[in-house]
Each structure stands twice: as structure tokens, then as C-alpha cells.
Amino acid sequence: MELRAEGAARFFLRKMKSSNIIYAVQKTDLTLEPGQLAVISGRSGSGKSTLLNMMCGLLKPSEGTVWADGLDLYSLGDGALSRLRNEKFGIIPQGGSGLGSLTILENVMAPALMYGKGKEIRKRAGNLLERFGIAHLSEAFPKELSGGELRRMAIARALILQPEVLFADEPTGDLDDENTALVLSVLRDAADKGAAVMLVTHEGSAAAYGDVLYAMHDGVLSGN
Amino acid sequence: MKFRHFLSVRNLLRRPVRTAALVLLSVFMSFSVFAGSVITASLRNGLESYSARLGADVVVVPYAATTKGTLESVLLQGIPGNFYMEAPLYEKIRRIEGVEVAAPQFYLASATASCCSVAVQLIGFDPDLDFSIQPWIRRSYEKELAEGDIIIGNRISMPTDRILSFYGVDCRVVAQLDETGTGLDTAIYANMDTIAAMIRGAQERNFHYFDDIDPANAVSCVMIKVKDGYDPELVAGNINIHVRKVSASKAGSMISGIAGGLKNVSAVIGLLTAVIWILAVVILAVAFAMISHERRREFAILRTIGATAGMVSGVILGEAAIQSLIGAVCGIALACLAIFPFHTAISSALGLPYLMPRISAVLLYAGLAILFTVAAAAGISAFSAHRVSRQDAGILLREDN
Hints:
The structure holds 2 protein chains of 2 kinds. Chain A is α/β, with parallel strands linked by helices.
């Protein structure tokens, strides 16, 4: 799947002396192509996460359009857009993202269980947990895990349905070097297997894994 | 089980303190509405039963009995009492214009001494004239009462054919009456011949209270049915004017006093229920708003993995429905434990006729209490669910970082 932002911008209303409108993301054009890992770096508050959320259908742009294989993402109803997120997208949100009442295994299986695709998914979830070194925690609950372990769980969950597009928002924050390398190599691997990957990060070493590099500054995306 | 239902159940189980607190609120809600409904219905039934049981248009008692409220004590609370007027007064009453039937009754309290099997109110009536007791007796006993036969009230636990002794007179229990919810449930009924034998027995055993009582020449009260076209109030007034040492009251005025009491008790119950509900609804609304705010990231995470707004709402509503259903059922169970075993104590404490509704009515009240409690919790949580599901997940995630 190809995702393309065309003049996509997002502003928020705030009471300020100069203006009531704050642009988190200025008009932006961005294309995520299958098999390509796009790395977007920038300081905190530069608009990276807002852009990622617009691209993955979680935040409607104030202006412009996001196209998914030629289809306006935000013209879809909530049901269709949610289904698309579930089936085609894998999203790794910033920060802890465990569903506290589910075990780690259930958390990883959740996207599949949500629409009744539970058959044979347990084995795949187990393999992913094994791959990320947290198989021994499959029956634990998120509050029993460290930040790094939770991040690995989130990545496993994002990969469970083999998404066509993978969104990762600061997936290496709080991780040690070893885990950072593991996560970045997993994202690289997903791209190599044909997924379009959007990685938003502070991590300097991430550039080495990317196909296209972007920088974000005050809501303006500058390319490659 | 659908994922959202599974998630709702898990969320409740994994947060036992929060769940218990919300369940407790639902317990209060269903307890108050169910217990309030059953008690109010019992009082209403009691009043209807009392009214039907009284059966007369006008009730005449010796003046002394009204000043002490004795007749009402007997009828409402089952407190045994002895009060009498002379038979000539009965004859005068019978001849007052507008009186169609005047049925005398004779009240006799049994003693706690060894001569009597149980201490109860004994009520004698004249089978030829009575129109208030016999229709009620007919429901459980078709035959005429012979001398020595007695019929016991519903709250006296004795099998039929058991022999009970009162002032040395052996009496056979021939039937038990349906419950009335009044003091008459603890009374025993016999014809005038049996009562006369008991009084003679009491006099022989030197119960001095009965020294001056000639059963053939005394009655305790007179139940009057007025002729068609006559106003019971006017007939009662005529009796009060023309017959000395007695007090005649329209039966309706006795009932209206009780109805007033019932109204007051119902108002207090209604007020308490309203206060509990208002408090519970406010607390639930605040709790759901706070919990939803606290859990907004969790809901945003659900959206990232493909949950629709409806699914997120479904999880919130599901949790509210499950915990309120559990709370409502527990509240009803608690109310049953508090009301049913102690209905006699409640009746005595209120001093009003109290007749439990039928099981079908109780089940209906329970169903409505569950429905109202679950609907209230679902309605309140729906507001929070709507707010949460309306927000962009991207903004919720952004706010939380």
C-alpha cells in the first residue's frame, strides 16, 4: 500500500496574544512507498507525531488529504477506517501502550481478536514474543514489565497481522543500545519484506536503517 | 465471547477496588428502589386488606375504647383488649334510622396463665348477623362454626384439629384464615356460645376482670351496614347523639387515618430513595467522568489497533452494565434479607397494616429495580463513552505524552 499526504496540515486552536491558531504541521507532501523505510527526525514538539497520526488515520488533517492507494483516508467512515487500521496498518504509539487488563500475550493478539481473527494467531503471537525475547512474560500484565519490554510488546502487537504499513513513533525511546538495535532491525526487516515503514525518532543511529530521511522543524518537513 | 465483552469483564476483574466501589453504588440504588417499592406496596396492600376486612360502614365501640385507641390497637397491632358495652345499648343502636344490619362482636383477651394455651385476642361474633368476619372465614372454612370450634389468624402457627384451651374451655382449630397484614392475623375467632363459655370459665377461675361481665348482656363493638341512600357519616352522628356512652365512627375515617399514615411513610420512603438516587447518580457521573479521563490513553490505544468509536463506547457501556447488574442483583438480595424475614418487625415498628405483595409483584419490583439501576448506570456512562469516543485518538495520544 502506498500512502501519500498531499498538502496535509494540522493546526490547533489556542489562546495566544499573536494568533489563536497554532500549526503543528504546515502543509506537507509525503509519500510512503512499499518496501521503503522513511525516517523522520526532529526535536520534541516539531510536529513529527502529529504528522504520523495524520498518516495513520488517527488525526484528521485540518487541511489537505491523505491518500491510501488512491483513496482519501478520511473520506472513509469510522468503521472502514478502523478496519483499515486494523488490517493494513501496524501502529507503535509513543510511550507505554499496554492494555492493562490483558496479559502480554493477549495484548499482542488483541488486533486479531478484535475482529474475530483469533485462529492460529496464538502461535504467531508466541513466535513474535520469542523473537523479541519476552516469551517468558506472555502471562504477565503490562504493569509488571519494564519500559523496554513494553516497547517490544507494542512492536510485536503492531506486527501481528503482518501490516502493509508500519508506523513507529519513538519506538526506541528509553531503550538501551542492544534493544534499540533490535527494534530498528525489526523495522528494517519489515520494510525489506515489502511494508511501507514510517519511523519518527530522536535516535541518531536510526538514519543508518532508513531509505529516505526527513527532518521536521516547527511543523515543516524537509526532505532527504 | 466478543472481544469488547471479554475486555469489559477483564477490566472489571483487574480493577477490583474500582469495580467494588461502583458495584456498591448500584447496590444502594437497587436496594432503595426495591425495598421502598416492596414496603410501600405492603402498606398499600395492608390498607386495602384492612378496609376490606373491616367491611362495615360504621363502627361503634364503648366510649372508653376510643379514648384509649383500643379498637385500633386490636385491629392494627393485635394487642389484646377487653372493652364492653351493655346489650341494651346495642338494641338502641340497632333501632337508629338508617341502620340496616348491626352485628355485635365480643372481644376477649386470653390470659397468659396456664388456663390458656396462647395469649391472643379472642373475637366472638353472631353468625346470624355477622357480615364482616364470615365472608372472610368462608375463604378457608365453608361449614358453620359449632360451639368449641375456633378459626385462627394467619400468624398463629397451629395445625387444624389441634385442641387449644382458653379459660378451661377446650377448642378445636378448624381452619386458618388468609393473611390480612393487620392485628387480626394474631386473633382467634369463635361464635358467641364459645366465647360465653370462656367467660364463664374465667369467672370460675377467679379472673376478677370478668366479674361484672355477663356475656349474654354485653358486646365489645357493633359493626353497622347502613341502608341504601343513607350517609354513613349521618348515621354515625345519629348514634352519637341518641346513644350515650358509645362512640360511632364512619369506617372510612378510621381508614383515612391509616391512609394518612401510609402517605407519610410512603413520602419518607420516596424522599430517602430520591436522596440516595440523586447522590448515587452524581457520584456515578463524577466517577465515570474521572475514570474515562484517566483511561483515555487506554481507549486511544484501542483505536490504534483498529477499534471503532462504537467498540470503545461498547467497552465502557459493557463495564457499566455488568457492574450495575451485579450491584442491582446484590442490592435486591440484600433488600430481601432485610425485608422478608423481618416483615413482622417492620409492620410493628410502623404500626400500620402491612401485607406483603404476591411473589409475582415482588418479582416485577425486582425486575424494575434492576432495569432502573442498569439504565441509570448505562445512561451516565453513555455520556462519558460518547465524549471519549468522539475525540481523535491522535489528540488523546498527543495529550498523554
